[in-house]
Specification:
The chain is an alpha+beta fold. Helices cover about 35% and strands about 25% of the residues. It has one domain. The protein is built from 3 helices and 3 strands, in the order H-E-E-E-H-H. A 3-stranded antiparallel sheet has the order 1-2-3. The mean pLDDT is about 90.
């Protein structure tokens, strides 16, 4: 019994050292920014944030932060690149 559990714990440790194994298909978070808390979500490759800047420009600091934090876990289309910055 314990050897099986120990094996699972070791496997979990190994997996945790390889975060690229994990891919987000959706994500919903409450992001505490300087001016309040905003709902930020990822559905497929589409980001959304309830802050004003996202609604006017399609990009905001909240989304860009999550793209940096979870970049290894995002698809290429959901990951931040310079091409997403409006001119």
């Amino acid at each position: 019994m314990y050897s099986s559990l120990i094996s699972k714990i070791e496997k979990a440790k190994r997996y945790a050292e390889e975060p690229e194994r994990i891919s987000f298909k959706s994500l919903e978070v409450a992001f505490r920014g300087d001016n309040g808390t905003h709902a930020v979500s990822l559905k497929g490759d589409e980001w959304s944030c309830e802050c004003e800047h996202f609604h006017t420009s399609g990009l905001c600091a909240h989304v860009m932060t999550l793209q940096r934090v979870f970049g290894v876990n995002l698809s290429d289309n959901a990951r931040y690149t310079q091409e997403h910055v409006p001119a």
